[in-house]
Amino acid sequence: MNSALYKSTDGGKTWKKLQQGLPAGKLGRVAVALAPSNPSVVYAVMEAEKKEEKGLYRSDDGGQTWKFLNGDFGLTVRPFYFSRITVDPKNPDIVVKAGLFGSISRDGGKTFKSLGSMHPDIHDIAFDYRNSDKLFVATDGGLYRSLNGGSSLEQIEDLPLSQFYHVSVDNREPFRVYGGLQDNGSWFAPSSSPGGVEARDWEVVGQGDGFRVYPHPTNPDVVYSEMQGAEAIWRFDVSKQDLKVIKPYPVQGDPKLRFNWNAALSTSKHHPNRLYVGSQFLHVSENRGDSWEKRSPDLTTNDKIKQNQEASGGLSADNSGAENHCTIFTIAESPLSDQIIWVGTDDGNVQVTQDAGKTWTNVAANVKGLPEGTWCYHIEASVHGKGIAYAVFDGHTRNDYAPFVFKTTDFGKTWTSITTSDITSFVRNIQEDYVNPDLLFVGAENGLYITLDGGKSWSPFTNNFPRTAVHYLELHPVKHTLVAATHGRGIIAIDDISTLRSITPALLKANLTYFQLKPFVIDEQSNFGGTAASNQFVGDNPTRSAQIRYFLPKRHTFGKMTAEIVDLQGNTVSKLEAGKLKGINTIDWGFNATAPKSAKGKSLSFAGAPTVTAGKYKVRINKGSEVFEQEIEVRYDTASSFTAQDRIEQQKLTRELFGFIQDLAYLVYKIDQWDTCMAAYQAAQSTQQKMLVKLNGELDALRDKLVVTTGDNYVGASEPRLREKLNDIYGTVSSYLRYRFILLRSTLCYPARKHRIPEK
Asked: How far apart are CA 460 and CA 634, in angstroms?
């Protein structure tokens, strides 16, 4: 490699190579920055052929001449990786350099010191142009901020910025989510937690760069994880805090094992204690990693030209382990047979065995239209047929950004491309639905895509799902939750994708179609919990409301559109807001009936809506002149500690208090009416009527006993009156079985919810 530094003074029409004072010979990566307050001052960090010439150079005449200032390790380390240098917009002598720990100079580059205590690998630094005392630092551990020019820094914890390579789930209730993070270890957390999923809910199960993480299929207290390049593969018993390294090692006669930086690791669908690991060979353990055997020959191309890691890096050697090539990257055991195993390699091979590894067939040459040697990034073995599999290939490291997703139905003898121009970037992962074979999801560099017709057409999933890189997808087999591991936005969960299975051509034409609505269970758990500070990120819990979903072939534009819950006799139970958008709409109903009318007063006391009883109801949507109804069922939680008699007594007393509150509201309303009438009568008289004055005073006194009539409900709060006391009793009784706040909203279907752990 040989680069140089050039300057243009005519907007890029012509360029002049800058040389005076810069190193001679071959040059590599160049980091360059101009001082905004004095454009004559230019800094450049040069990767040079001679070690003593690598480092920081400064020009004070706009690049005409340069002076070498500093060759500190913090400035020159891994130049291909750390290539950002930034100058204070107010002071040309303050310069910061991204690097392993970050460096700052306040004397024009002559001396540097550490930028501060942060998670290592500093990738970018930006000053606030209006106030250069404020600067932001982007690291492998998140975003940091300084308000004093870099003298001290704090981490900004309320941004979901983490980078997950992988995600898996278990069958707990709530289920756990497992994943490995870029330079932040491996973790798991519950999919929901009181108050939301917080940092305290995440538990570490691995160190270093975290990649694949799997729970043991039948004992989720046992977790498998790894760190970069399979430097370690762990089996960790969370309940016992028992940790064991279970990495396979070469035996006598074996060559050096080549593990990818993101080494292939997988559990078995058929044998709980079986574990797969890939180097250039497929390694299989039948005892949770205590011992290993090879089940394959070298399944890669074994191209020696691509295995000279010690010479990698160009002018600056870089042999960190990430340079390993000709390695197995993905392993997929068929969910229908333990004899069928697929393997994909980073040098383009796709291998399959139908006899548990005794014989292998390389089917890569059968993938027509795929450039040779393209990285096989993921293989998905199908639940819909033994010979069916999907293969995803990623060519972006060779400047090929096309999406490559192929399907085979005959064990790889033939392949069909299932990508279209609808997918606009390269793809890393695919997830099939376990029920509908035509429902597929792909994770691409620019977001999530979905197909309902087996790949004939694709659409980006955009409802609250960011346009971010999706590295892995997992579908929960029971909860039907699609969980995505993203680079830059943490873990994103889309709750219950089962509705998408029901979309048919006939449904797309009907004016309004309800999706199948399973019985809804009233959640009686409290929403207590939550200790996160206001500046910390908290992942959303799944909704506790009943989600009523329906499909509109086009947006409702003309005429009113309303929604309500009615009982089987047609009486209104609760009024809701109907979604009117084209496509899938969701109404969230919090199992609430209509709230009682509360008396008018000066306090903030109010009576909330009571929870409905279990039973059958109807959803009624009025769309213009058309009426659409669907019967639904509401059930109590079978795990609840409340008895049937508890519910009968609670419901009876709630109804009585409901009536008292409305009677009180009507009485106060009548008193207000009488006041208005008397005031109008008095205004029409020439003299005050003593009887009316007395009556008015008596009414005011009565009202004062019924409701709060003075104060500001804060520092000047009045003592509670009958309304406040009654509302308080009613609130306690009506929420006795379900003490939590209820949110009502109508949204477009499937708002994705986000999880992330704070970077350590």
From this structure: 34
